TrEMBL record:
Residues 22-171 form the MOSC domain. It comes from the Bacteria. This is Molybdenum cofactor biosysynthesis protein. Gene3D superfamilies: PK beta-barrel domain-like (2.40.33.20).
Length: 183
């Protein structure tokens, strides 16, 4: 079931394991691997902490997406954050990423499809980038449960080129829907 159409605001990548990623005119997503030329590309985990635990784990974090509206919220709180600086590959507008269920498919542009696997778990590197940023991307709901606002992760189902301005089409999986958890 197709829900909404949003927009790709920016695309970013880094060949090295850097915290921030460089904005690009376009990126290529490769099925089963991730963002071509990005340090986190691969069928198995590439995040250093995960590799240390078990390098054979499947890479459920091939693509990191953050809603540009989070940047607006952080800027209003006094932080200086722009697209790619928090390590995301794709910055979106108009899609409530954090409310999507596991298995949602995002068609980015005319070809590329990313399947949502879960939430990014914010890490202390955020505070090394800007003091207080880690706390700013964490919240609590009315029951005291942690809300992680630092974006979502996904795997590439169908490869293709993605550029700023490309439309995003959201297709929900069949019910029952599973809420996002950290991956």
């Amino acid at each position: 079931m197709e829900l909404a159409i949003g927009t790709v605001a920016a695309v970013s990548r880094s060949a090295a394991h850097t915290f921030s990623k460089t904005n690009e005119a376009g990126i290529r997503l490769l099925a089963g691997l991730g963002v071509e030329g990005d340090a986190h590309m691969g069928a198995t985990v590439k995040h250093r902490s995960r590799v240390a635990q078990d390098p054979t784990q499947p890479n459920l974090r091939q693509v990191h997406l953050i809603h540009g509206e989070l940047h607006d919220e952080l800027q209003a709180a006094g932080f200086s954050v722009t697209a790619g600086q928090m390590g995301e590959n794709i910055t979106t507008r108009g899609v409530e990423l954090l409310k999507l269920p596991v298995g949602t498919r995002l068609q980015l542009g005319s070809e590329a499809v990313v399947e949502v696997t879960g939430l990014r778990n914010p890490c202390p590197q955020l505070d090394r980038f800007q003091q207080g940023l880690l706390a700013a991307v964490l919240d609590r709901d009315e029951h005291g449960n942690i809300i992680r606002k630092a974006g979502i992760m996904g795997i590439v189902i169908t490869g293709g080129d993605v550029r700023p301005g490309d439309p995003i089409r959201v297709s929900l999986p069949p019910p029952p829907h599973r809420p996002l958890e950290r991956v």
